[in-house]
Amino acid sequence: MVSLEQRQALASLAEVDQHLKKFQMLLNGQYPRGPGKDSGDVRELLLEAICSNNSAGFKEAASKISERKITADSDWCNDDYLLFLLLLGNEKYGRPLSFLKNVIEARGKNPNPIPRKINDVFAALERQEFGMDGEYCFLKIPFLYLAGKLRLDSAAAQKALSALTAPHFFDHFSPFLKLLTQKAHDLVLTDRQPLPTETTAQLMEGFENHAKNLSLRQWWRVIVVLPGRIHLAIIGLILSLGLIPILFGFGKGLAETWKSDQHRVRPTKMTVAEAHEVNSSLPSEAITLAKSLAPQDAPGQNKYASIVVETEPILNATPAFVVEISHPTKAISNAFAFVQVAGENSRSFTIVPIERDSGRFRAILPEQAKGTKICFVFSVEIEPGETIDTVAKSTILRPIQ
């Protein structure tokens, strides 16, 4: 575990080291303001490009590094901070850096066991192997968080927590790796993906709470996933009661009902059709709601904008599902969501329930008809030099169960 004393010591180090301070701000979802392009430090340039989501700036800074000589004893090859930024930008911007594999191979010649284990993690990230495997697997967690790809299920969280609780593990790391470790610890506790049920008691409680609302089709899905011995018991009960003739007629009716109702499928991805600032194209009620999204107590120098993201119409009718909206580098301060049927009056819409999860929001959708559009309206901080259009286009929509 990362103790309070260790956190305070690390915070003191970050206050006197601007490189650490800016990276700490990035981990906390803040935009590090600094000299940026006026600085000769390539780490400053890479960090500035990642924070501003500037892929061209990142590739330009990284190209200068690619000209350097790659050797096992080179200072820049053994700079964990620099290599982490290169790996992160490489993942975010289409994997343009082919020289990273050679750098990692050179680092692998280090006889010290701790740097070798850290390098194994970096090698796995370069190969896009994101599973919680290896002794220092928890270092992958802040990387995936910054790349917008963190999906911690119960098993992965348990593996990471087991590694994080190893005795004295924190003492062997550099201040930069300690920042990563501290963030990994916090994310394991706060960002583990919720599961519908994790124990038999929770499953039974769920049935008791929702049994009266389950449709015939949903009950059929429950029966299908039951173990084989339960199926045999049901068949034996039916035979003993002489209900076969009745169920033949019932089964025929069920098949006809199934055919008459279009098979519902949860979308596997959501495609953004439009992303723009709030304007008169929204229903008047939605415009009124959008005006209340920006934080009322935000510092005067901060500018918040309300942005609209609309999906393409859904291709097939869906069951109930959830859509999550997030941004790879920014925390969304507030949001609401609504649905519209494509082709209908654009002023007709239905607000859906929404759930906050740190800097992300999830819309909880009931069954949807084919052709429905999902709209998110959210508030986010716009930094100097950014445009609403670039921020809007970087948002991520993800359908989940």
Q: How does this structure look, described?
A:
With 401 residues, this protein is of the alpha+beta class. The chain has two domains: 4-190; 272-400, Immunoglobulin-like (Sandwich). The protein has helices at residues 4-16, 18-27, 42-51, 55-66, 80-92, 100-107, 113-126, 140-146, 154-164, 175-190, 200-210, 216-225, 228-241, 244-260, 284-291, 388-393, and strands at 272-277, 303-311, 321-326, 334-341, 350-352, 354-357, 360-365, 372-382, 396-400. The strands form two sheets. It has a five-stranded antiparallel β-sheet. The protein has a four-stranded antiparallel β-sheet with strand order 6-7-3-9, with no helix packed on it. β6 (354-357) and β7 (360-365) form a beta hairpin. α2 (18-27) packs parallel to α10, α3 (42-51) runs antiparallel to α4 and α8 (140-146) crosses α10 (175-190). The longest helix is centred in the middle third of the chain and has 17 residues, at 244-260.
